[in-house]
Design brief:
With 323 residues, this protein is α/β, with parallel strands linked by helices. The chain is 37% helix and 16% strand. The chain has 2 domains: 221 residues, Rossmann fold; 97 residues, no CATH class. The protein is built from 11 helices and 9 strands. It has a 9-stranded mixed β-sheet with strand order 1-9-8-7-6-4-5-3-2, sandwiched between helices.
Length: 323
């Protein structure tokens, strides 16, 4: 384990455009948007965005040396440019893992590095547990194992103590009588037929996450969190996955899978003051997985765009490129 310093930090690689884009048909009602950038003969990597229900963005391409990496990014089912938007049908952890495998086969690579933060780390670990032979390295940020303890901390009782002002806004769409189970109350509205109630709930849900992302406060909140179309897909998919407990066989299932992937080279970057995915989870994971390179960024929260997180992830991708 290392604790990062605040001097001599690097910034993102320059902007880069993809050399290939398209939609991959899944065969069960979805079309998954993907793009590939960097060096056509570079080390292959797939990027798994957060959420569930987030999307890729051009900044994600910039965590990789474009002369050394061939990077595939894709919008997971129901979000971003993938179609249909906000769809929950055939949308589980396991169908997303099938999509990753389809993309790998389409790219013609035997194995690739997997880069993911927040929910992206959850999905990366689940993929590695199912297909360890297809993963050359894991580069993870903001570890989230989607346990009941983690979900309750953020959506019922815990993070609210640190952000009472933002929490008050999160509570606003839910009547007092339903606040004993906020996840269920939100899920009803986000999957219901009342469009106005759905949008109100989605915007409040998304704003809560946006308000807690970064130690920089509102300056660290992406503008898209205020957009109703993004908010609906984001909140519907998150609540769908969380109500279904990630579709995992048991609570804490991912931690039990460490023996399946612990020989894969791994780099974990975690903000000390991450409120969305608190450091306790990364600590538990690395206790079970001491081979992983674990870096705590002292002056960072959850957002991938915080200076210390950027620096740690750049060093991790550079190290993985040398494997």
């Amino acid at each position: 384990m290392t604790v990062s310093q605040t001097y001599g930090r690097r910034t993102l690689y320059p902007d880069i455009e993809p050399f290939e884009t398209g939609w991959m048909t899944t065969g069960d009602g979805h079309e998954v948007y993907y793009e590939t950038c960097g060096a056509k003969d570079g080390r292959p990597c797939v990027v798994l965005h957060g959420g569930p229900g987030g999307a890729t963005n051009p900044t994600m391409r910039r965590f990789f040396d474009p002369s050394r990496w061939r990077v595939t990014l894709f919008d997971q089912r129901g979000c971003g440019k993938s179609r249909p938007t906000a769809s929950l049908e055939n949308n589980t952890t396991w169908t997303l893992i099938e999509d990753i495998e389809r993309l790998r086969e389409q790219a013609g690579v035997e194995k690739w590095a997997v880069f993911g933060g927040s929910w992206g780390s959850t999905l990366a670990l689940a993929y590695a547990a199912k297909h360890p032979e297809r993963v050359s390295a894991l580069i993870l940020r903001g570890i989230f194992l989607l346990t009941e303890r983690e979900v309750r901390w953020f959506y019922q009782d815990g993070a609210s103590y640190l952000f009472p002002d933002a929490w008050e806004r999160f509570l606003a769409p839910i009547p007092e009588a339903e606040r004993g189970d906020l996840l269920a109350a939100y899920h009803r509205r986000l999957t219901g037929s009342d469009r106005a109630a759905q949008i109100e709930a989605a915007c409040a849900w998304s704003q809560w996450e946006g308000d807690t992302l970064s130690i920089r406060g509102p300056d660290g909140r992406p503008a898209k969190f205020a957009e109703p179309d993004f908010a609906v897909a984001f909140a519907r998919l998150e609540s769908h996955y969380f109500v279904n407990k990630g579709f995992f066989p048991s609570d804490g299932w991912l931690l039990d899978q460490v023996p399946r992937f612990r020989r894969i080279p791994a780099y974990i970057v975690q903000g000390r003051f991450d409120v969305v995915t608190p450091i306790e989870t990364a600590w538990k994971l690395t206790k079970a997985w001491p081979e992983a390179v674990f870096e705590i960024v002292w002056d960072a929260g959850h957002a991938s765009t915080e200076p210390g997180i950027i620096d740690g992830l750049l060093r991790a991708t550079d190290a993985a490129a040398r494997l």
